[in-house]
Amino acid sequence: MEKSFFFPEQNSTFAPTVDTLYYFIFWLSMFFFVAIVGLMVYFMIRYRRVEGQEPEASPSHNTPLEVSWSVLPGFLVLGIFGWGFVGYMDMRRPPTEAYEIHVTANMWAWQFKYPNGAINNELHIPVGQPIKLVMRSADVIHSLYVPAFRAKQDVVPGRYSGMWFEALQPGTFHLFCAEYCGQQHSDMITKVVVHVVNESELTEPGEKTFAQWVEDAADPLKDVSLAEGGKKVIEMFGCLQCHSLDGTRKVGPTYKGAYGKMVPIQGQPSVMMDAEYIRESILEPNAKIHEGYEPRMPSYKGQMKDEWIDAVIAYIQSLE
Predict the structure, then answer these.
(1) H/E element holding 90?
(2) pLDDT for 2
(3) N or C: which end of the chain has fewer CB within 10 A?
(4) What integer is the mean pLDDT of 192-212?
């Protein structure tokens, strides 16, 4: 994978095309900048005003020169357009065999859902296989951006948007929201983890192939205690973007020491944070809004299984 001054390493099939076009435009612009500024300075010096010498009358125009500086740049622009259009169409047409992952963006986390029901707040994909993302926003405009893949696409509320890519090398790469989406926009950062496909290619202890990872991710409660499973569920859904575990006030109230305490509710009597309150807050977050906080939490009805909710309750209870 190649790195450059302007870009991180290339790790998708169309990254070389994007970089080559960028550098062509960059160096072409540099050439014309130097040429035009250089000629301007030369003409300023060569034809500067000299005392006692009157300027000669200039010709009305030079037809060959005017045609040249209009037509030649026009061909360059058309060439750049054609080059970019071919690359753009490649980015917009995923192969039919692409592996499809559904993406939900909300303030301020990403959620990736896999065909087997696995859900995670990080994007995990296999190396060497085309990946198609079907994306939607639960609130405002977001933009999914993976610099190493040279892939970026706005995620707009009320419609589906899509993108695809194919990673060339395994590893971990940054994934950003590239559209300002509110107060915690800068925290809407996660990772793309590119897994190997064959067990023989595993190099690190605890490393998993994509098939192993996606199977384990479909059951976060497997081989762990209920409270430990609850922590995995909370991380899976990106809850820690808005809630803290150490008592720090964030967009939402902290989990630490909250279980069993009275919660002041906007416009309603206070209630105790118990299993019923946590369950209702997950499924109907606007039913009882914690006083002092804005109603920003999305509903996880239809996404979070009952046993996962039980695990979350057990984990929050364990933080006393």
Answers:
(1) helix 63-92
(2) 61
(3) C
(4) 86
